[in-house]
Specification:
By secondary structure, this protein is an alpha/beta fold. The protein is built from ten helices and ten strands.
Length: about 240
Amino acid sequence: MPTTAYNLLEISDLMAGYGRVTALCDVSLNVAEGEIVAILGANGAGKTTLLNAISGVVAPKSGSVAFLGSCIAGMKPWATNRLGLSHIPEGREIFPGMTVEANLKLIDVDGGGPKFTIDDVLALFPRLRERFAQLAGGLSGGEQQMLAIGRGLMACPKLVLFDEPSLGLSPMLTKAVLSAIRGLKDRGIASLLVEQNMRAALKIADRGYVLRVGRITAEGSAAELLESPDIQHAYLGL
């Protein structure tokens, strides 16, 4: 009999923000094992705050964040990383003065997910093999994004949080990066994907949530969201 995927991540009634500003209000969602879930919304909707609250960059004001059945709300990023949660932030945050090789070798965390070696990363992103000995600061934007993803995978995660992975990339590199994210599903790695290219995100996602002014206003399968007239009008320009 087929096995039923369990929820890796469960968020209930989450409120989070910065100082007195509340960016998220009563947000509830889940991500199952091996699933790709897209978070859709306009700029300022609270998407980045959501990922930051999950990974520990921002401490939630209230609500619950559970990973693998245990509460992680308020944990620091390095602690959630050790549990198997990798966060690939917007802006990449690689070490530009270090080589590609050194950036990848810097990660010394085993999150208990599928094993990723440097060879696995280079197979996923062959362009990094060509740049292996180069300083990361000299890479193109797309290559830096590949390196950031590869570095996150070196921590052997069970779930990866992606914040705008295609931002500033050409259509060709966007396709390569999103295809690599889709390929993680085949390795058993789940993804929570915030992506500006909403049509492309829904093409690789299983499900999605629409975040509007800090609240979830719609959810459904990727196909349902793609076909929704409201989503098409508000986010896809149709």
